[in-house]
Design goal:
Largest interface: A-B, 49 and 48 residues
CATH architecture of chain A: Orthogonal Bundle
Oligomer: heterodimer
Helix content of chain B: 10-25%
Number of helices of chain B: 4
Radius of gyration of chain A: 21 Å
Number of strands of chain B: 7
Structural class of chain B: alpha/beta
Shape of chain B: globular
Number of domains of chain A: 1
Distance between the termini of chain B: 55 Å
Strand order of the largest sheet of chain B: 1-2-5-4-3
Helix content of chain A: 40-55%
Largest sheet of chain A: 4 strands, antiparallel
Chain lengths: ~375, ~190
């Protein structure tokens, strides 16, 4: 145990602080072992695995259609992109062609899910920093999206809606009308969040100069999603490797400038506006036709081979690697989980920061431990 | 950059690195012949071709299909969709499958401005799964290599902190290996 001189000539011992695993600001079961010298962090060790269920191994004894259910349980606050990533990989393996209507419906659901997920982030991040009101506003809107999902497929979080070959069910006129009604309600609310939280002086003071990640560092650690774009790196899978007819929609990729906690926060706030644009375009231009490819086997046995597909999930680049041996179950399923990879940078980022900033930095990375641990 | 153009650029410097016989569908997949090539090839891709984003590190155990016995508790298969008949031997089930006692490692590197990505593959024998670590080149390799070590038991030489990450401390073995058998612990009934 080393001693260093404190600012008043006293001596500080190193102090080990165990943050989590049961702590509301760690957003799940994350434990961070912090070594402090006075108020300054000298070592941070994130400890994960409390929620490890081995879902990728479970997939090796289940049929392809059954695996979609497993993917719901990774990022449980935005499960649609998980479904989509797995289905895209399986479809690539099987060589399936997806009808245009199904591709549009997938886009609608994924973007609504992105709004719901970012609303959850916005609300809980406010709570992390002591602002309770935005949380109630954000959850009111998120609840509306969950109601839409419940109407669509009966589930509020674990949808199993996107299936191999297409989607589970078509939308009704009533659903489309309610979604438009929600978008109309939601659009003016985004300015409300800006007034309440984004440009609140206390919030700015807590986040603007905190948790800086420069672009080189972000790329080196393999960050993705708003965490990477907050540092000014323009990388969005929807643009870089388009899937599910995203190339047909007109939207921007919001970028941050300095990679601070506020930049990452505001990237997400701006992304919600873009998601609204995409949902509106997709609903307006929804093509007629089938909602699922014809002739998808109930027990598909794709020929031996390997496929990789990735999507821009709410938290970043979610990649699915599938290997087939010709059997009815995937031979190997690997998920490149954005939360898992985004979390690794904590061990470098927290060092040298004050302990009071830990929660601000942790919250701004926006992790879901179900996905980090799989 | 097309897959062929990229492969020929790499082959210009490293003639033994060729396109893999079984590619990851729709992506450029290069097959390394020995573990010692990994660091130079990755360094070349990063420094001269701009692949500075390590997207994924993983591995496949090609021993054969997993035996369901490892999951069965109390003699009964909890999966209601599983057949009641005794399992057929794996080789008879999937005659065309390339089973062999190797780990096939897979790295995915991306070039963000040019929007291209490349997969590198390397086979290592199952009885001595040692490959060099990429931690010094990409920090993103840190946790992903730890994950592959934890779940598949692949030793990444030169990794500064190679220890378990996902499984609990008391768990014995590497659960994502195909021959993993569950050892009863205090959480079994």
């Amino acid at each position: 145990m080393t001693n260093t001189a404190g600012s008043r000539g006293g001596r500080f011992d190193q102090l080990f602080v165990n943050l989590g695993p049961q702590h509301p600001s760690t957003h799940g079961v994350l434990r961070v072992g912090l070594t402090l010298e006075g108020e300054v962090i000298v070592k941070a060790e994130p400890d994960i695995g409390y929620l490890h269920r081995g879902s990728c191994k479970l997939a090796e004894t289940r049929g392809y259609h059954q695996c979609v259910v497993l993917t719901d349980r990774w990022d449980y606050v935005s499960a649609m992109p998980n479904n989509l990533a797995f289905c895209l990989a399986a479809e690539r393996l099987m060589g399936l062609e997806i009808p245009a209507r199904a591709r549009h419906l997938r886009v609608v659901m994924c973007e609504l899910n992105r709004i719901a997920s970012h609303l959850l982030f916005l609300g809980t991040y406010g709570i992390d920093l002591g602002a309770f009101t935005p949380f109630l506003h954000a959850f009111r809107e998120r609840e509306m999206i969950l109601d839409l999902y419940e109407m669509l497929c009966g589930a509020r979080l674990t949808y199993n809606y996107i299936r191999i070959g297409g989607v589970m069910s078509d939308i009704t006129q009533e659903w489309a009308a309610k979604t438009r009604e929600f978008l109309g309600f939601f659009k003016p609310r985004m300015r409300e969040y800006d007034d309440l939280l984004s440009f609140n002086p206390i919030f700015l003071a807590r986040t603007e100069e905190v948790g800086l990640i420069d672009a080189r560092q972000a790329v080196a650690w393999g960050l993705s999603g708003p965490n990477l774009r907050g540092s000014g790196v323009s990388y969005d899978v929807r643009k870089a490797d388009p899937y599910s007819s995203y190339e047909r929609f007109d939207f921007d990729v919001p970028l941050g400038k300095r990679g601070s906690c506020w930049d990452r926060y505001y990237c997400r706030a701006l992304e919600m506006r873009q998601s609204v644009r995409i949902v509106e375009q997709a609903l307006d231009g929804l093509p007629a036709g089938d909602i699922a490819a014809k002739g998808v086997s109930k027990t598909p046995k794709p020929p031996p081979g390997e496929a990789y597909a990735h999507v821009e999930a709410s938290r970043g680049d979610l990649g699915i690697y599938l290997a087939s041996d010709g059997g009815a179950a995937p031979f190997r399923l690997h998920a490149r989980a954005p939360s898992f990879i985004n979390l690794a940078i904590l061990q470098e980022m927290l060092v040298g920061r004050k302990v009071a900033d830990v929660v601000a930095i942790l919250g701004s990375i926006d992790i879901v431990l179900g996905e980090a641990d799989r | 950059m097309t897959a062929e153009a990229l492969a020929s650029k790499v082959a210009g410097r490293f003639p033994q690195v060729v396109m893999a016989a079984v590619p990851v569908k729709d992506y450029c997949t290069l097959r390394l012949t020995s573990a010692s090539e990994l660091a130079p090839v990755v360094g070349f891709l990063k420094e001269e071709l701009g692949f500075d984003y390590l997207e994924m590190v993983t591995a496949v155990d090609w021993l054969g299909p997993v035996s369901p016995e490892g999951f069965v508790r109390g003699g009964r298969n909890p999966n209601p969709f599983a057949s009641e008949e005794p399992p057929t031997p794996p080789a008879a089930r999937n005659p065309g499958a390339p089973y062999k006692p190797v780990f096939d490692l897979l790295w995915c590197l991306a070039n963000i401005p040019e929007r291209s990505r490349v997969f590198l593959r390397l086979e290592v024998p199952r009885d001595r799964p040692v490959v060099p670590s990429l931690c010094a080149i990409f920090k993103a390799a840190d946790w992903q290599e730890r994950e592959a070590f934890d779940l598949l038991g692949i030793a990444f030489e030169g990794h500064p902190n190679l220890k378990k990450i996902l499984t609990p401390d008391f768990l014995v073995g590497h659960p994502f290996r195909k021959d993993y058998a569950h050892v009863k612990d205090r959480y079994d009934e």
